Structures are given as structure tokens and as C-alpha cells.
Amino acid sequence: MKKSEAKTRIAELSAELERHNYNYYVLNSPEITDFQYDLLMMELGELERRFPEYASSASPTAKVGSDIAPNAQFAQYPHKYPMLSLSNTYNIGEIEDFAERVSKGTSLPFTFSCELKFDGTAICLTYRNGTLFRALTRGDGTVGDDVTRNVLQIPSIPKKLKEGTGYPYEFEIRGEIYMPYKAFDKLNRQRELDEEPPFANPRNAASGSLKLLDPQAVKGRGLECTLYHLLTDEPVAPEHTQSLKIAASWGLPVSEHIRECSTIEEIEQYIAYWDTERKNLPFATDGIVIKVNQIPVQTSLGYTAKSPRWATAYKFKPEEALTKLVSIDYQVGRTGAITPVANLEPVQLSGTKVKRASLHNWEQMKLLDIHIGDYVYVEKGGEIIPKITRTAPEKRGFDIIPVEFPQNCPVCGTPLVKDEEEAKHFCPNSDFCPPQIKGKFIHFVGRKAMDINAGEATIEQLYNKCYIKVLSDLYTLTREQLLTLDKWKEKSADNFLKSLEESRKVPFERVLFALGIRYIGETTAKNLARTFGSVEAIASATKEELLATDEVGEKLAESIIGYFSDPQHIRLIEDLKSAGLRMESDKTAKIAESEILKGMTIVISGNFSISRDDMKALIERHSGKVGSGISANTTYMVAGEKSGPAKLAKAEKLGIKVITEEEFLEMIK
Ligand code: IVH
Q1: In what order do the strands lie in the sheet with 311-315?
Q2: How far apart are CA 175 and CA 173, in angstroms?
Q3: What pLDDT, on a 0 to 100 scale, did the predictor assign at position 322?
């Protein structure tokens, strides 16, 4: 390669990797697989070695990718010790090179600690006086985002260490926050119902969850933590594995499955074992970390700008399988989004037989240059449905057929539409296209919506019998009609009717969510209900008023206006209202008076000059949240007359500021 070519390619690769770093660490939405990313990084590293005149300390090969959230959403604090990354390889031979470098770099005896490489997001915990003091993300390696309030919601991370176990007054311990597959599947299923884009893999889900602005929302995400690096001013033991055992005795969740190895053969055995066995773990791992176990040897080897010289990672290649594309189905979702799904010749992949894979959208299909009859590679990478990563054009036969994206909805025949900025095609016939109608019912009866005792199969039957066409039809169903359903007996009919009755008590915010207005998820439904107080107020709100609501952007505001400008929807709302559904909030909270208390959680205790309900309404009118009990997330406790001594004691223990009613009123004046 010529010098000028190398210079151009280095600039290209650097820019590309910067972009991928941003997608991965900040947006939590990578466009390429880790493997493709590592290949680009390797190519850049290799070119910089050959043409050192073009290497710079600002290159992606020389610094860690930054996860700092934009707009200073979190406070930032410096790391006491830099928080670095790890060098990595997919090649066993390079592990031998690593061992050789270590051996040349020290005259002391050493062994290796082999550990799992957890595929989550790095966290640095500081404990002070036995209490969790601060949790920082890696950030740019020098400063990290303060996510303490969120970390306090992760059950496996102790807020307090075990008394009397001899922990130092202050120390740091680092590890990984990850999301087990089960929690990941649950979250993505819910996100699909809420019309939020699913996370590509558990790692993105974990780091996205850790950066949520509402700690309460983190609570239900099922995050876990495992810790793998203790940092104290004075080592607590001469070996890394011993220090982790000591940290475990303080009550910390340290990483399991560690094995001390003395030879390359033992390391290779460990790798071979976990390359298969990891598939039985309930969480994602992307490799093995090999660390020098003796802390004095670690210290003498030191660090490069990006990673320790005493550790490296061996990464597992993502599993893929080669198979033939038989046909493509075009599925119509609840929102009318068309998803192309590939039907494949069945092939074994990571323990399951794969027959179908997502092709995402037309853009993706064009990028893949896909033809029916092509050989394609499928990869799992943690997703619910596997994806096609590339084709094998060298295996292409003469029997291939070019693919054309359908112009009409495969179910109702309506011409499809595609907005410029949307990747997907849509069927606009939202009120009459059968899968869209059925999808709306399934969403409506869902647990987080109206919580009606009916699954997909029931909806399917009711729809096929023409008993339900619009949502309000559910409330006119009779016992006799229900008894005509396949396998339905008195008991199931009564249960269903009872849950219909119960659903009339569901609060307005959930009814609003249940309507399935495009882009209204659970949180936005809550915000809208809190801000406007009733469906009429939302329906008559101007775009500006809608945009002033928390988390409501252009697309959502337009969707709301579009929805309420359809007379059929107005009729539906009237029918649902007549059926007894709640179309206004309990508290007649109207548009927030101020945002003075935004982001604050306030707990009230005792009696005030106004009623407790009025006090709560006052907090909400100034955009605050009313907390039910004192926790680390409480911003203030407002203590009235006869306020509970237990609450006061807890507030004091957690260092929560207690204020009087007067002080509170002064605050919102
Ligand atoms: S040690 C200074 N051990 O992998 C060395 N890291 O790709 C610190 N990781 O940034 C890292 N499992 O977030 C270490 N058992 C393990 C790990 C581990 C996962 C992560 C960590 C690191 C990243 C590098």
C-alpha cells in the first residue's frame, strides 16, 4: 500500500470507528457486530504499525470509547485510577504472544487468572465506611457518569457491606452490569408492545438501562452485577484471585468461574471448555479474560494508554450458520409496520434449529443484495429472532430469483407507504387491516394496559367470529357469545367478564396507553395523563402544548393530533367512556404550574395545613414525584405535624434532607 493510500484509509477507519463508538457506547444501538468492529480496529492498528507517521494519540486504537451521555444528563466525576479497556484477540496464538511478553517483562514468578468476559457495561463502585458511596460508568476512562441512583436499584449490589469483615475505609471495585437473557427477552417483548425499538442485544439493554433518567424504571429491568477488579491503596492480598475472595467475604458479588492457570495449555483448556459451556449460562459472555494473577507483577508491567499490559481478552467468534433462503414472508405488525422475515432451510445454531430470520427492512435487503435461493449466514447475537448478516455470493446458483418489496399490504391489499426518515414500510389502513386490528386488541388487553383476561388465541377467535371490530365491542360481549368459543366453559366466560368489569377501574394513564396511539408508550401515557388530566384536554391540546410535555417530541405530537382528528376515534373514545372506562385522571391535575420540582422525589409525612392529598397534588403540579417511602432516591422529606419517627430516622440514616411545610412552600413559591 502506498503512503498516501494508507493516510486516507487511516483517516477513513478512524472516522468510521468514532461513529461506531458513539453508536455503541452512547446510543447503545450498534450498526455492526462486535466482530466487524474488532476487524476494523485491527485493520487500523495494523496500518498504524506499518505507517507510524500517521498514528496519533487521538486515534480510536489509542483511547477508550466514551459512554458519557449527551447534554450532561448525569453529574460527572473523575476516576481515581483510569478506567481502561482490554486488548483483545480472536486468535489463540496471540495469547501465547501475550504470555511471552509478560514473561519477558518480569523476573518474578507468575500465574494467570482466567475469567469469563461478561458482556455488559463496565461500572466502578466506590465504598466508603462500608456504604456504597458512588457508582461511575467508564465514561472516557478519566471521568465517568454518576449513575449511583440507578445502581442503588440493582438488588445484587449491596448498599452496605457485611459488618466486621475488615473492609478498608475506602476502596473501589469494578465490574460489569449485565442483563440476563430472561430479563432481556422480557424487556424487548414489552418494548415491542410499547412501540419502542427493541435493544439489539443484552449488552445494549444493560447500558441503556443504566443510563435511564428515572431510577424507578431501572428497578424493573432485572439488571445484575458481577465484580472483577478490586482497587485499594494498599493491596489486601498479593494475588488478584485472593483479593476477589476477600471482597466476596465483605458481601460483594464477585465474578464466578475463575480458574488459576500456570500454562498455556491450561488456558487453552479453559477457553475450550467455556466456548461450549457458556451457551448454558443464563447471561451473555463474549470471551475470556486472562490476567496476570500476582499484583506486584501487574504493577511492574503497567498500562498502555488504552489497556493494561497484564491482561488481555480472548474473544469468541460469534456463532454463525450457513443455509439457503427459501422464501420471504412480509409480516404486518400492530402499527402496520411491514417486517420481511426469511424462511430458511432449517439449520442448527447455538443449540436451536433456526428456520426463520429477520431481514429488518427493504434497505437492509438491498444492502445484503439478497435473492431467493441465495446462501446466507445467520447469526444469533442474543436477539430473539436470528438475523441474516451476509450472503455467500460465491455459492450462488442459477436458481436464484431477485426480490421485490411488495407494493401492497400482503393482508389487506392497501398500497404501502414509506416515510423518508422511517426505515420500514407501513400499511396505512390501520383501522381495517386485520392483523393491525387484532394487534390493537392484543395490546389493549395486555397486562400493562387494560389487563383483561384474554390472550392472542381468544382475540383471534373473537375476531374471526366477527364479535369484535372496534375496541369498544369488547364491552358489549355477552356470556352467550363467549360460550360459543372453542373450548370455553362457564368458568372461562365468567372469568373473562369479571376481568372486563375490573378493567373499568384501570386508571386513565393506562387507558390512554391501551388505545394504542402510535408512539404513546407507558411513560409518555403517564406524562400526558399527568399533564393534561383528561382525554378531552389531550384531544384539544395544540401541538405546542403537547410538545411542552415530558418526553413528547414532534413525531408523537403529530401522531396524537392525527389520531384525534379522525371522527371514528372520537366515537370510539365516547363508546369506551359510555362503557365506563376512565377517561380522566383521579386528581384533576391540569397542566403543570412549574417545573421547580422536576426530577425530584418527595416524601411527605404527618399532617399539614392543607390535606395530604392536596399536598401531593401540589408536588405533582410543580412536576415533582410523590414518593411512597424514604429511599436513597428521595430528594426531600417534607415533615408535617406528627410525622412518623421511623421515616425521620430512615431519612437521617440515608442523609435525606428533611424540610418543613413552610420551607417546602417557600421552594415552590
Ligand atoms: S478486567 C484494567 N475482567 O470487558 C482491566 N474486564 O472489552 C479491567 N469485562 O472494559 C478489565 N468481563 O468492561 C475485566 N472478567 C473481566 C471482564 C471484563 C468483562 C469488560 C470490561 C472491559 C471490557 C473490555
Answers
A1: 88-89, 311-315, 285-292, 112-118, 259-261
A2: 7
A3: 94
Confidence of residue 169 (pLDDT cuts 50, 70, 90): very high
Q: Is the pTM of this model over 0.70?
A: no
Specify the 3-state DSSP secondary structure of 518.
Answer: coil
* DSSP-assigned letters across all residues of 455-495: -HHHHHHHHHTTS-SSGGGGGG--HHHHHTSTT--HHHHHH
What CA–CA distance (Å, rounded) separates 287 from 277? Answer: 12
Burial class (CB in 10 A: 0-12, 13-18, 19+), 462: buried
514, three cell numbers: 391501551
| Centre of ligand 1 from the C-alpha of residue 182, in Å | 23
* Ligand 1 nearest atom to the CA of residue 307, by list position: 2
Q: Report, in angstroms and rounded to the nearest whole number, the Rg of the chain calculated over CA atoms.
A: 29
Q: Is the CB of 311 under 6 A from ligand 1?
A: yes
Query: How far does residue 311's CA lie from ligand 1's centre (Å)?
Result: 9
Whether 597 is in the pocket of ligand 1, judged by its Cβ within 6 Å, is no
Measure 290 CA to ligand 1 centroid, in angstroms.
10
Q: Which of 63, 117, 211, 387 is catalytic?
A: 117
Tell which residue, 598, 593, 583, has the closest CA to residue 529: 583
Select from 176, 254, 278, 285 the residue to mutate for testing ligand 1; criterion: most ligand atoms less than 8 Å from CB. Answer: 176
Whole-number Å distance, alpha carbon 187 to ligand 1 midpoint, is 25
Name the band, by pLDDT with cuts 50, 70 and 90, for residue 431: confident
Ligand 1 atom nearest the C-alpha of 84 is 2
Say yes or no: CB of residue 308 within 6 Å of ligand 1. yes
C-beta of 512 in contact with ligand 1 (< 6 A): no
Q: Three cell numbers at 500? A: 372486563
C-alpha cell at 604: 411527605
pLDDT at 350: 64
Helix (H, G, I), strand (E, B) or coil at 112: strand
Nearest CA to ligand 1 atom 17: 117
pLDDT over 90 (residue 592): no
> How far is Cα 79 from Cα 137, in angstroms, rounded to an integer?
9
83 Cα nearest atom in ligand 1: 2
Q: What confidence tier does 166 reach under pLDDT thresholds 50, 70, 90?
A: very high
d(CA 188, CA 204): 11
Listed in sequence order, the residues at least 6 apart from 478 whose beta carbon sits closer than 8 Å to its beta carbon are none
| pLDDT level of residue 438 (50, 70, 90 thresholds) | very high
242-257 average pLDDT score: 96
One-letter amino acid for residue 221 of the chain: R
Q: pLDDT, tens digit, for every residue of 71-122?
A: 667 899 999 999 999 999 998 999 999 999 999 999 999 999 999 999 999 9
Compute the distance from residue 587 Cα to the ligand 1 centre, in Å. Answer: 49
At residue 588, the pLDDT reads 45
Cβ–ligand 1 contact at 119 (below 6 Å)? no
Reply yes or no on whether 465 is catalytic: no
644 alpha carbon – ligand 1 mean position (Å): 45
How many Å apart are CA 197 and CA 339, to the nearest integer?
13
Q: At what angle do helices 181-193 and 202-210 cross, to 10 degrees?
A: 70
pLDDT tens, residue by residue, 310-367: 999 999 887 789 999 999 999 998 889 999 999 999 998 766 678 999 898 999 899 9
Q: Is the CB of 122 under 6 A from ligand 1?
A: yes
